[in-house]
């Protein structure tokens, strides 16, 4: 319960985060279909530090790994009952004990689910960007270095911001 002396917290936008995760999965699936139709049978699946391909696989094998991961991880991250049924001792969140002692388990899990769904959606988008990178390489002889760095940097920055938001949201009022 929130006492009158404590500032009112903004509720997490858990639903908006779920919409983001679902939209990201759909975008990833769209890019997967595009990749399946457009990519040659053999594609580069690993690149050296200079951006040159140094390992090749079939597009079927690549999608056989990417589709379960690009859909499965965001789905796993988005299903609340999975996380709510875990023993609370396995969940490591900022100020967890503070919120549990005040009977705010629902708020704690709302924050967790917002975070998990955002990260899940970001993972789906990262997998989609990797398909674009691989497809770009399939059409040209070399790949600019920024093509691999930018999606990764965006993923890391956005995930860092999600961690910061979770931390700020769960910081106890003073």
Summarize the SSE layout with pairings.
Layout: H1 14-38, E1 42-47, E2 53-58, H2 59-78, H3 80-85, H4 96-101, H5 105-139, H6 145-170
Antiparallel strand pairs: 1-2
Helix pairs in contact: 1-2, 1-5, 2-5, 5-6
Organism: Brevibacterium spongiae
Domain DUF1648: 25-65
InterPro entries: DUF1648
Uncertain stretches of 5 or more adjacent residues: 1-5
Residues in helices, as a percent range: 55-70%
The share of residues in extended strands comes to 5-15%
Give Rg in angstroms.
20 Å
Mean pLDDT across all amino acids: 88
Task: Categorize the overall geometry.
Answer: elongated
Strand order across the largest sheet: 1-2
Structural class: mainly alpha
Cα distance spanning the termini: 16 Å
Biggest sheet, open or closed, and with what strands and sense? 2 strands, antiparallel
Q: What is the number of independent domains?
A: 1
Count, helices: 6
Can you give a write-up of this model?
It comes from Brevibacterium spongiae. InterPro entries: DUF1648. Keywords: Membrane, Transmembrane, Transmembrane helix. With 174 residues, this protein is mainly alpha-helical. The chain has one domain. The protein has helices spanning 14-38, 59-78, 80-85, 96-101, 105-139, 145-170, and strands spanning 42-47, 53-58. The chain has a two-stranded antiparallel sheet. A hairpin with a 5-residue loop joins strand 1 (42-47) and strand 2.
